[in-house]
Every structure is written in structure tokens, then in C-alpha cells.
């Protein structure tokens, strides 16, 4: 049998198997006591092959030799006669010396040795080999195929139910499925049958496939898992627990988001991050600069007035990360939501506070374009939009050169003081790391802002001095030309008092409170009450 397997003599192997087969007749069988290798239609007694497990001097069976010699026909023939030999352990290649020296040796299953040839793997699996039995080192055939980066063998084993939930041999927090997608290819996931009940979304295997599919951006697999899920009630919990809606908003298309929302994803679920910080899907839509995704969420009962854990509105996320068009859309829609959901007596106060806080945030971000958009929308909603005085303090604090230039050109008073009596030149500097719409700042930026404000103050002082000198000369000419009699007839009229530029009207103080953002109250000394 060993020689026939080694020389690929399939007909001799089949002849020998028929010769050594035995029928274990039971006591009540009609053929009991007759030929032990003869069966008939009336006999259902089991057939055994007692000599197929015989080993040679190296400890290998005929099946082992056929695997070593790469004889898939012999493997199929042997397993057709006896499936019990499919999982018998075999020695590593070249272990004859170890056997003779009686040293400890490693062994593996026939399926491990067949991984180099897909035909051998198919012959063994079709013949009844178990796909999850480990070798002496505890590695299953799937793990061995992944380490060898054998894509065809990995895909075939996954198709036939290999366990991929076990931990990776190197990284305990990584599953075999994740390692297969990383080392081989994400296309391996396409070999998994989403219609298989073992891969249902309500099972651990189905959830593992879902997680890896979303990590590899295989949204067609995610959709198939949801479509073929038998327990429809658990879909929403699974999607919310794995934050599928967030991944779809960031890395997928709007139709996929609509599909998830239609099949049970919660548009108002809390998406947790590090340090127990969370926000909502509508914040993510603003962050990824997607108006269509936000519209899709609003149709599913999401709200633009919902706040994150840090009390931030979606419009603020848009100002942090999105483009000017998206910022404008979020501001207008938020204003519409305020008009719709706020009581009539509080609409004016809520609207004013929202607009001035958005204006101050745009100033802090350092984007002149976004600041112009906020001011334009604010003037459309409120006729008497507050003056821009306190914004110069914020621009100085964060070292925003372009904002400082824009505010000074727009007529902002460089000598106006805040509630603590500090002018813009007395505001301290604060460093900012920066992100998408807000570049980082530096001490040089602050010095440039300070220089611009000082030049504006000097220019204003020169203008005031010139105007006062011109007025005095005109009064002097008028005094010399007039006669004493005419002056007595007209009387001595008192000149109007000169306005004090440092005086702060009550309206300016009240509006400065609304202009100060939450992050600016500490250094401005402004209360929002």
C-alpha cells in the first residue's frame, strides 16, 4: 500500500483496499459466519479497513505518503474507503533522524501538510477531514495557511466553516479573521457565505464578519449580512453597539447610510470615544462635510439642536471641520430649528446668543470667509446685529492676524475695553494646536496682531489731532473776523463736549457678554448670565 501510494498507482490502491476490507456482521445477520469481506443488499453491517492505519519504519501511513508525494488521486481513493484516517497525526518532513535518535518531534495533521496544494486540500476536506483540528503547536490549518499567505487555501477553508473567532497566535487581541484580511487581502471576506446560518448577524461569527467588513470598507458584505439576518429585532442593537453608522458616515456613501437607518440604526445613538466623550451621528455628518448625510439623518428624527457631551452643536462641528458651503447650510438650518422649537418669547434671545457665539467662534477659528458667512446670515436674521468690538479681543487672544486685519478694516474700535477694563493690546496670548479649519498659532502671530492694533490706535490718534487742530484754527479765524459788538449780540455759545472714546455704553457691555464664547470667558472676565 505504501509503495502504491508513493508511485501514484491508484488502481493498485483500490484493489488492496477491496482486499483488506472486512464486514463486521452482527450475531443476528443472515451472513454471520460466512465470508467476512462479502456484503449483500440484505446486510447493513459496517465495513472496516483494519490495515489502512499501518505505518512504515518512519511512522507514516499510506495517506501520509500520498500527501508528501502530492498524490491527490490516492488521497481521494483512500478516504473513499475510510474517512477515519483523515485526521491521523503525521510527522514533519525529514524527521527520520529524530525518530531514530528518539528526540522530541513535532507533528501535524494531514490538512496542514496539504496546504501547499489546493487539490490536496479539497481532496481531504471532501473526504471528511476536520478543518479545525490543531497540530502539536496548537495551530489550526487556517492559521497555518494565513501565516503562509496562501490566499486560495484560506478562502477555501473559510468557505467550509473554519473557525476564525480564535485568537491569533501572535497577538491575543487579534482574531484569525482580522489577521487573514491583513496578511492576505480584504477580498478574503468575499469567500464567506452570508446566507449560511452559522454566519447570521445574531451569532458571534456574523458580528465578527460585520466588524471586519466595516474595517475593510466592504459595505456590500455589511448589507448582505443585514438582509439575510433571521433575527430582525437584534439588527438595531448590533449596529448601534458596533458604531456602524459612524463608520458609514465617515467612509461610505449616503445610500449606505440610508440603508442602515432604514434597517434599524439609531440616528441619535451616542458614539463614545476616549475618556467617555461622546457625540451624535449629526455631529459626524457635520464633521465629514456632508450635507446629504445630515439631511438623511434629519428625516429620521435627528435634531440640529442636539448637543454633544461638551455642549457643542452640529453647526460648531461644521465650523471646526467643514467647508464654507456646509457651514452656511448648518447655520441656516439651525436658525430654522430655533424658530421652530423655541418658544416665541425666547426666540430673540436664543437667536442672538447663537449668532454672536457663532461669530465669536468663527473669529477664534481664524477664517475670514467663515466669519463673513456668519455675519451675513446674522444680518439677515437680526437687523441690529451687535457691533464687532469684543471680537478683536478674541482675535488678539488667539493670534489671528487675518481676522484682526478684517476687523480693523471693518471699523472695529482698537481702544474699546472689555468688562475688566482691558483694551485689545492688553489681552494675553494663548497657544492653539490647530485642526482642519483652524491653523495653529504662535507668539509671532500675536506680535503681528499687536502691531496692527497699535498702528490703528496711532492712526486714530493722528486723525483726531488733525481734526482738533483744524477746528481750533477755524475758531481763531472766526474770532478775529468778528467784532466785539457782534459777539455781544450773539452771546457766548458753549462748544459741545468732546466724546470720550474709552466710554462704554450700556448696550455695548450687554452685547459683549453675548459675544464672548465659552472658551473666552476665563480671560475676558465675562459672565453669560
UniProtKB/TrEMBL annotation:
InterPro entries: Ankyrin_rpt, Ankyrin_rpt-contain_sf. Keywords: ANK repeat, Repeat. Residues 462-477 have a biased composition (Polar residues). Residues 462-507 are annotated as: Disordered. ANK repeats lie at residues 137-163. Gene3D superfamilies: Ankyrin repeat-containing domain. The keyword Nuclease does not apply. This is Ankyrin.
Amino acid at each position: 500500500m505504501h509503495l502504491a501510494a508513493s508511485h501514484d498507482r491508484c488502481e493498485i490502491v483500490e484493489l488492496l483496499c477491496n482486499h483488506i476490507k472486512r464486514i463486521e456482521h452482527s450475531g443476528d445477520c443472515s451472513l454471520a459466519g460466512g465470508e467476512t469481506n462479502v456484503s449483500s443488499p440484505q446486510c447493513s453491517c459496517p465495513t472496516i479497513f483494519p490495515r489502512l492505519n499501518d505505518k512504515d519504519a518512519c511512522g507514516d501511513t499510506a495517506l501520509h505518503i500520498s500527501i508528501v508525494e502530492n498524490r491527490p488521486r490516492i488521497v481521494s481513493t483512500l478516504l473513499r474507503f475510510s474517512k477515519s484516517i483523515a485526521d491521523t497525526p503525521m510527522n514533519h518532513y525529514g524527521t527520520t533522524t529524530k525518530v531514530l535518535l528518539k528526540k522530541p518531534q513535532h507533528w501535524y495533521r494531514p490538512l496542514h501538510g496539504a496546504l501547499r496544494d489546493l487539490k490536496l486540500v479539497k481532496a481531504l476536506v471532501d473526504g471528511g477531514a476536520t478543518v479545525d483540528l490543531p497540530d502539536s503547536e496548537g495551530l489550526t490549518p487556517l492559521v497555518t495557511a494565513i501565516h503562509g499567505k496562501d490566499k486560495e487555501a484560506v478562502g477555501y477553508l473559510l468557505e467550509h466553516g473554519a473557525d476564525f473567532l480564535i485568537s491569533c497566535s501572535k497577538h491575543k487581541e487579534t482574531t484569525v479573521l482580522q489577521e487573514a484580511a491583513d496578511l492576505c487581502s480584504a477580498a478574503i471576506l468575499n469567500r464567506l457565505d452570508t446566507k449560511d446560518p452559522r454566519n447570521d448577524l445574531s451569532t458571534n461569527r456574523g458580528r465578527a464578519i460585520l466588524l471586519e467588513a466595516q474595517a475593510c470598507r466592504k459595505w456590500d458584505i455589511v448589507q448582505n449580512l443585514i438582509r439575510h439576518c433571521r433575527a430582525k429585532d437584534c439588527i438595531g442593537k448590533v449596529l448601534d453597539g458596533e458604531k456602524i453608522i459612524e463608520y458609514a458616515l465617515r467612509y461610505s456613501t449616503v445610500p449606505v447610510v440610508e440603508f442602515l437607518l432604514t434597517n434599524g440604526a439609531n440616528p441619535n445613538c451616542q458614539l463614545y470615544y476616549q475618556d467617555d466623550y461622546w457625540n451624535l451621528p449629526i455631529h459626524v455628518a457635520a464633521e465629514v462635510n456632508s450635507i446629504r448625510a445630515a439631511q438623511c439623518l434629519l428625516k429620521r428624527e435627528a435634531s440640529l439642536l442636539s448637543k454633544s457631551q461638551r455642549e457643542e452643536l452640529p453647526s460648531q462641528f461644521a465650523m471646526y471641520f467643514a467647508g464654507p458651503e456646509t457651514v452656511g447650510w448648518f447655520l441656516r438650518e439651525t436658525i430654522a430649528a430655533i424658530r421652530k422649537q423655541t418658544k416665541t418669547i425666547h426666540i430673540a434671545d436664543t437667536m442672538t446668543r447663537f449668532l454672536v457665539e457663532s461669530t465669536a467662534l468663527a473669529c477664534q477659528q481664524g477664517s475670514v470667509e467663515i466669519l463673513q458667512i456668519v455675519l451675513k446670515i446674522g444680518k439677515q436674521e437680526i437687523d441690529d446685529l451687535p457691533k464687532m468690538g469684543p471680537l478683536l479681543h478674541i482675535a488678539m487672544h488667539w493670534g489671528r492676524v487675518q481676522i484682526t486685519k478684517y476687523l480693523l478694516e471693518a471699523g472695529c474700535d482698537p481702544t474699546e475695553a472689555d468688562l475688566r477694563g482691558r483694551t485689545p493690546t492688553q489681552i494675553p496670548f494663548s497657544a492653539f494646536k490647530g485642526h482642519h479649519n483652524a491653523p495653529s498659532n504662535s507668539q509671532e502671530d500675536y506680535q503681528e496682531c499687536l502691531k496692527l492694533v497699535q498702528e490703528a490706535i496711532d492712526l486714530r490718534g493722528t486723525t483726531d489731532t488733525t481734526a482738533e487742530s483744524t477746528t481750533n484754527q477755524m475758531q481763531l479765524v472766526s474770532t478775529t473776523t468778528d467784532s466785539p459788538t457782534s459777539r455781544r449780540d450773539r452771546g457766548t455759545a458753549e462748544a459741545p463736549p468732546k466724546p470720550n472714546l474709552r466710554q462704554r455704553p450700556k448696550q455695548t457691555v450687554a452685547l459683549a457678554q453675548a459675544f464672548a464664547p465659552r472658551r473666552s470667558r476665563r480671560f475676558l472676565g465675562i459672565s453669560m448670565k
